Amino acid sequence: MVNLKRILFPTDFSECAEAAAVYASDLASRYDAELQVLHVIHDVSLDVPDFGMGLAFPGYLENLPQRRKEISSAVKQSLELLISQFPEGLKAVDSHMKFGNPISEILEFVETQDIDLIVMGTHGRTGFSHAILGSVAERVLRHAQCPVLTIRGDQTDGTTPDKNTDDVTSD
């Protein structure tokens, strides 16, 4: 039988993530697992070299700490609201917020926090938008050191998965 102790639910607070939250909380309940909720704030200032742009946009670099603080506060409130909507009785639900590249931060979290399963939403982009925007879920799926369950938001009705399905077994 599959032994899940720690489930990671990375969220971007989108409708797709909401659909995945149902599955993440249901699996945490079924397996009496801890649910770790993670939001990564994509810190563009870490990805883009300065090239003197701070000089071109006066005040940009000076205001960055204040903007980070404001964003952090808003994200913390969103995480608290999200967690308050999970059903009661879950073993443990912890929230985490990080600044950085979402893919790198999710993969690092999995490794450092001994995660057994990732449950995440995917937008299901194809074609041009996929080529330009890429897919965090796809890259996490390719590089994660644990199983990844992806939920397409447009293919779910938001209800809880069937409680009568058999547990997944492993030979």
Your description of this structure?
The N and C termini lie close together (8 Å). Strands 3-2-1-4-5 form a five-stranded parallel beta sheet, with helices on both faces. The chain has one domain: HUPs (Rossmann fold, 3-Layer(aba) Sandwich), CATH 3.40.50.620. Helix content is 44%, strand content 20%. This is Universal stress protein. It comes from Thalassoglobus polymorphus.
What is the 3D shape? Answer: globular
Provide the gyration radius in Å: 18 Å
What's the tally of helices? Answer: 7
Helix-and-strand structural type = alpha/beta
The top-level CATH class is Alpha Beta
* Strand order across the largest sheet: 3-2-1-4-5
Low-confidence segments, given as residue ranges, are 163-171
Q: What fraction strand?
A: 15-25%
Distance between the termini: 8 Å
Q: Averaged pLDDT, please?
A: 82
What oligomeric state do the depicted chains represent?
A: single chain
Question: SSE order, as H and E?
Answer: EHEHHHEHEHHE
Main beta-sheet annotation: 5 strands, parallel
Can you give me a brief rundown of this structure?
InterPro entries: Rossmann-like_a/b/a_fold, Universal_stress_UspA, UspA. The protein has 171 residues and is α/β, with parallel strands linked by helices.
Task: Summarize the SSE layout with pairings.
Elements (H helix, E strand, L loop, with lengths): L5 E5 L4 H16 L3 E9 L1 H4 L5 H4 L3 H25 L7 E9 L1 H11 L4 E6 L4 H7 L2 H8 L4 E5 L19
Parallel strand pairs: 1-2, 1-4, 2-3, 4-5
Helix pairs in contact: 5-7
Family: Belongs to the universal stress protein A family.
InterPro entries: Rossmann-like_a/b/a_fold, Universal_stress_UspA, UspA
Protein name: Universal stress protein
